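Convert to structure. Protein one:
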Amino acid sequence: MSFAFLLTSFIVVVSPGTGVLYTLASALKGGARAAVAASIGCTLGIVPAMLAAMVGLAAVLHTSAVAFAALKWLGVAYLLYMAWQTLRERGALSVEARQDGAAEARVIVKGILVNILNPKLSIFFLAFLPQFIPSDEAHPIARMLELSATFMLMTFVVFVVYGLFAAKVRDHVVSQPSVMAWLRRIFAGGFALLGAKLAFAER
């Protein structure tokens, strides 16, 4: 596995995006357990993109305007929904004193949806991973699985670090209603901006 792949993957993973924003918001809402749950969800959400790239579905999204637009607008709608829920305090930043299994499962499912409904992720896998697979590779699928697993592991670790940091300062933040109000606006604005960015995305 090349250093170039590891470095490029790390830069992609640590760059603030929907998954990072969702993980931070979940950590501020439910603490460390929610942070880990969000990290799991966002990481699992990579699997469909990986499989799509392997079976050629990403190529369909890349060439079919209708398929790409359908998935894109579902993603936009979901991000705007998350922005609205955050503002209404029943979404990512409605603070809960305790997290039970059902709450954590919901965090995981939402994290999965965040990535599934982003068609750019599938196209990213289609364009990104093949660059690191030699043309004479005897087992390209196995190689792609190896690279994908590494990317997913890196995603999980980085997101957990982000989330645990947010969870650590959670008690200081939630005790100040004015700070929470501003954070809700910031996170809602972030989700809305990411939705707008996705809306203008081209294949």
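Protein two, convert as well:
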Amino acid sequence: MTIQRRLARSGFTLTREYRVPLQRVWDAFADEDQKRSWWGDSVETREWSFDFRVGGRDIDEGKFHNGPLSRYEATYTDIVEHVRIVTTYDMWLDGAHMSTSVASWEFEPTDAGTRFTHVEHGVFFDQFWADGQGREDGTRGLLDALGSYLA
């Protein structure tokens, strides 16, 4: 089977209001045990690595129940404590390189708790060229899981 070589680009912004202090939201990303509690909850983990520092790498490989093997490899490019986290990351699906993205996570204290903003720009490769909406939907699911964890 010949793979048609193509690229697609996709970007989105998602904002959530979490009714907990900023420190609690920050720790859900910065503390390994907390991140494991909500990140990728619907997959059977095969490999996990967590190195929360500028230049550090995270890996999360897992199999969706009765579904494909997904691999996430991220590098932290900027961390300003309690303000922002910026990563570049690549995704694979069943061993095929799916995409490369830049994602920023911003944390802002509010009277009611914390405003969290996720901004992402991705490039999708070859057979995955139309998956931008799927990435946004998947990220919504992660932010919902984070909200449940924080509640």
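The radius of gyration is 16 Å. Residues 98 and 128 are 6 Å apart (CA to CA).
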